Inverse folding.
């Protein structure tokens, strides 16, 4: 086993996840929200790969690859929506897009 | 013979279906002829059955044919079976024969009506239903026919559905008939539970082993049905209102055939009535009361058809009187002759109404004899037959009923007196109608119609005059098939059914009683005609003014008002109470509460839907955090 202890990886992962969550919750631009979501996904990937190395298996790495594929598709959809909103000349502000309120 | 019976039953049904299905692809005239053809085909089938029966010995004249088992439940099963015996063949001949003439008459009468096809489909349906009623080989099929004729009657009374009175009359007839249907159904339930069958023969045998109370109940239930269908007191009020229908309908359904079904039922179920003599006496008594009440009410009616309708009730009262006392053959004999002369009177009245452009008020008529001489003769012959003047048909049949009443003891003699009083009334009201309509000076309306059309107009198209002529002949000769004391082919023909069992000695009046009755009845009939002549013909007497009596008669003895007070008003009151006390607060209130609750809950939950993305994200994040904490602590 080379490199730092597993706990360091997890700490970095937790910090990244928190940064991402804060971004999703606090930022108003949908682009930044998407970006923050990516950070959260990648923090999870980091934790998965760290555990994969710890146990010496490949399952975690395969999971990480799957997460990346899903993340890529999700970004395509998300960016598509953002472009559609922009083309309708609406504000790129998630607080303004609240027609679904009860 | 069996094939004839099936042909007789199914031809009118085929006619009704064909007219309904072909719809507008055939002309109205074709539909009318199709209906006529189907009913005359039925008549041919009836004649074939009649000929077949004549070719057999007395004992073998009863045949049941079953097409298939129609209904089976455990030990109880009912076949789709027809019964061919002298009684049913007699009814088949009357229904299809008189029916055919009346449908033919309708072609002229209904000409130009927008909904002629519907009319003729209904007429064929009615003839089919009535034939099913009389041919049904068990009580259940009889009840099916019974219900179907009620339906056809409802449809035809309300045929002119844009007239509110016609619709109201149709509903009234249907409700009163439904009451009778219900009592009959109850009687059948008792029969099924006690004897396990509805076949005529087996049920009659089984009825012998039932307790007196149950037999009385069954007979009472059957009597209820008969009274409702035949418009006898106390269920008589629908018949005069039924005159809202087209005149041929009145002639066919409300004079010649359907209303006599009650008499047929009593004769058909006579073994049960013989086991319950008190109920049979009740039937005879109701008949006697009806014939008097209807005769009195007919004296003051002003609608030409209503007078004849009351006369129908009165004559059916005679039939009930006869059948209730056990003189089945005589009751059926009067049914036969009555079908002829009453259909004749209605159709002749229809000619008058047709001529006067749908005017039915006799106060606006008068002096029609000159404009319609042939109709006058037909009406005169029908009236004389109705009053019972020899040698016309009504004389033989009515007198034979009265003679039977005279021969059946003290109670019978009481009814005999009522029947004689009825004969006097019959003479007065019948000839009051005749004198007011045909004699005297032509009224303004009559003059106007004559003037408008000239004298070349005639009295109606041949399709209308031909049936009237045929019925005139039948009204004259129809009674000659049975002459008291001389020959009784009709009684002998019906004999297998009338004396099939020896429970009760049939009333058999002696020749002396026959002649005494005839002299009295004819004398009273002639006296009635004389009174009518003095009052309405020569007008030597003035009509007595008795305000109270007149008002009572004009209100038909307050029967409608009584039923309104006893049944209608309380029903409306109770249902109003239930609406305000139960329906609105409890049922309506609880449903309103459910909707109110759902709406409020939805509104409250809607508050949580802010539309802010961050709220949802926070909720997810918070929930995950809580779950993580829960999982960790639980472990």
């Amino acid at each position: 086993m080379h490199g730092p202890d597993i706990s360091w990886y997890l700490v970095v992962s937790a910090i990244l996840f928190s940064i991402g969550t804060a971004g999703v919750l606090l930022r108003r631009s949908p682009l930044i929200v998407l970006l923050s979501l990516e950070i959260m996904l990648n923090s999870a990937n980091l934790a998965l790969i760290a555990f994969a190395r710890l146990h010496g298996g490949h399952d975690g790495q395969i999971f990480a690859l799957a997460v990346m594929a899903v993340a890529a598709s999700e970004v395509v959809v998300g960016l598509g929506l953002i472009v559609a909103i922009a083309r309708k000349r609406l504000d790129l502000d998630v607080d303004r897009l609240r027609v679904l309120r009860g | 013979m069996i094939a004839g019976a099936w042909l007789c039953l199914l031809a009118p049904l085929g006619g009704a279906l064909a007219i309904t299905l072909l719809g507008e692809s055939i002309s109205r005239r074709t539909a009318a002829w199709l209906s006529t053809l189907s009913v005359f085909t039925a008549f041919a089938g009836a004649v074939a059955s009649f000929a077949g029966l004549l070719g057999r010995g007395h004992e073998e004249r009863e045949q049941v044919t079953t097409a298939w088992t129609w209904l089976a439940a455990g030990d109880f099963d009912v076949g789709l079976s027809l019964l061919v015996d002298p009684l049913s063949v007699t009814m088949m001949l009357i229904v299809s024969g008189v029916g055919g003439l009346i449908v033919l008459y309708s072609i002229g009468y209904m000409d130009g009506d927008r909904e002629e096809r519907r009319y003729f489909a209904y007429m064929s349906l009615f003839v089919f239903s009535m034939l099913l009623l009389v041919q049904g080989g068990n009580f259940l099929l009889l009840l099916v026919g019974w219900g179907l004729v009620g339906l056809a009657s409802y449809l035809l009374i309300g045929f002119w559905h844009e007239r509110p009175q016609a619709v109201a009359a149709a509903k009234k007839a249907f409700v009163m008939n439904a009451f009778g249907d219900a009592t009959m159904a109850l009687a059948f339930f008792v029969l099924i539970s006690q004897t396990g069958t509805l076949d005529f023969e087996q049920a009659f045998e089984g009825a012998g082993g039932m307790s007196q109370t149950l037999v009385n109940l069954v007979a009472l239930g059957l009597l209820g049905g008969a009274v409702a269908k035949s418009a006898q007191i106390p269920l008589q009020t629908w018949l005069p209102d039924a005159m809202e229908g087209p005149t041929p309908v009145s002639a066919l359904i409300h004079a010649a055939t359907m209303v006599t079904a009650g008499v047929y039922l009593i004769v058909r179920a006579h073994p049960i009535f013989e086991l319950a003599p008190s109920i049979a006496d009740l039937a005879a008594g109701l008949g006697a009361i009806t014939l008097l009440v209807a005769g009195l009410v007919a004296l003051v009616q002003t609608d030409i058809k209503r007078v004849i309708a009351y006369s129908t009730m009165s004559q059916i009262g005679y039939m009930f009187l006869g059948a209730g006392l056990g003189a089945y053959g005589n009751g059926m004999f009067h049914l036969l002759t009555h079908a002829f002369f009453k259909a004749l009177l209605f159709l002749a009245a229809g000619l008058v109404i047709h001529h006067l452009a749908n005017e039915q008020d006799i106060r606006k008529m008068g002096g029609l004899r000159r404009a319609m001489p042939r109709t006058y003769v037909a009406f005169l012959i029908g009236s004389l037959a109705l009053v019972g003047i020899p040698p016309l048909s009504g004389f033989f049949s009515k007198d034979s009923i009265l003679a039977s009443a005279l021969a059946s003891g003290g109670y019978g003699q009481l009814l005999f007196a009522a029947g004689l009083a009825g004969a006097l009334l019959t003479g007065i009201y019948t000839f009051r109608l005749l004198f007011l309509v045909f004699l005297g000076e032509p009224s303004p309306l009559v003059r106007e119609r004559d003037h408008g059309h000239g004298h070349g107009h005639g009295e109606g198209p041949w399709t209308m005059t031909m049936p009237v002529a045929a019925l005139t002949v039948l009204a004259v000769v129809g009674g000659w098939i049975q002459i008291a004391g001389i020959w009784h082919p009709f009684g002998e023909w019906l004999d297998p059914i009338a004396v099939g069992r020896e429970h009760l000695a049939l009333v058999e009046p002696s020749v002396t009683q026959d002649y005494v009755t005839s002299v009295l009845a004819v004398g009273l009939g002639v006296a009635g005609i004389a009174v009518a002549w003095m009052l309405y013909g020569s007008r030597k007497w003035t009509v007595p003014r008795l305000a109270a009596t007149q008002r009572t008669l004009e209100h038909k003895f307050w029967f409608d008002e009584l039923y309104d007070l006893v049944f209608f008003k309380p029903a409306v009151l109770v249902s109003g109470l239930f609406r305000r006390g139960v329906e609105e607060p409890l049922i309506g209130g609880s449903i309103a509460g459910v909707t109110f609750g759902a709406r409020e809950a939805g509104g409250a939950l809607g508050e949580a839907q802010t539309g802010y993305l961050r709220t949802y994200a926070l909720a997810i994040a918070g929930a995950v955090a809580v779950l993580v904490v829960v999982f960790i602590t639980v472990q």
Remarks:
- Residues 499-505 of chain B have pLDDT under 50 and may be disordered.
- Chain B is about 75% helix and 5% strand.
- Chain B touches chain A through 13 residues (CB under 8 Å).
